[in-house]
Amino acid sequence: MRRFLLASLWVSPLLFCVTASATTEQQAQPSSLISITPANTFINDSILPQIQSWSGASETLLMAADQPWATPFEQQGYLSTPNYDDTMAWLDKLVDSSDLLHKVNLGKSPQGRDIWMIVASSEGAETATALSNNDKATVLVQAGIHSGEIDGKDAGMMLLRDISHGNKRALLENVNFLFIPILSVDAHERSSEYNRVNQRGPINMGWRTTANNLNLNRDYAKADALEMQHLIRAINIWQPDLYIDVHVTDGIDYQYDVTFGYNVKQGYSPSSFTWLETIYRPAIEAVLTEQGHIPGAISVCDR
Ligand SMILES: [Zn+2]
CATH topology for 5-12+80-297? Predict the structure, then answer.
């Protein structure tokens, strides 16, 4: 297997919440004009710290609910995330509409759900061999390893939409993009308002562990879980150069609104650490800061 770099990204629920209270009337307006008011929506609002207002360039990534390619998350006022069937139905429609996208089945979960990966490339590659032939770096982004931390799924759907129908097609000139919307598919469907008492939204959120009660984020090395075996096989087949595992901070209130971590210096590849520390980190911090965020590079830790 080629060496690949591992980075994790945690998105603060604050990002979810600051957009969560827009009214129906406001959603029809250009996203930069959305007024942010304190949310009073989620089951645990009364016990959580008061939400802080936020505004920045990232809001322009949101599409109004009445637009044809609005994601379910945008259609539902930024309050909820679609279930497995609705997620895949929307992605199927998107894949069918674009020559850039293909859908690949990675395997079945213990409860029989298919785990899917979307392949995005400027050549519309359908196989790993075809993808490798274009000599571009390949980035794999995986959401929903902890399916109660699902913001990355909705963000990835927005990005795929913008790549295929918006202004982000140029991203594929330099890179191939692989996206797993939900890894822990069974846990994603064990959905409740009460699954994470200290996390503000979405209204219905998935469960941390799989149907076999395994934490996939503790299973990379032992690979007890079917889901992890499928993922490792996919990594070996598709050979990503950079692997991004998207989480949410479980309601932790940092001063940062986006945190990220990566291989440490003592890890398997010191040279990977050096690249992540000296190239990746400054680039991520610069872009996020420019967009109005407060990024925080933290050690890869137990989430
Ligand atoms: Zn997590």
Answer: Aminopeptidase (3.40.630)
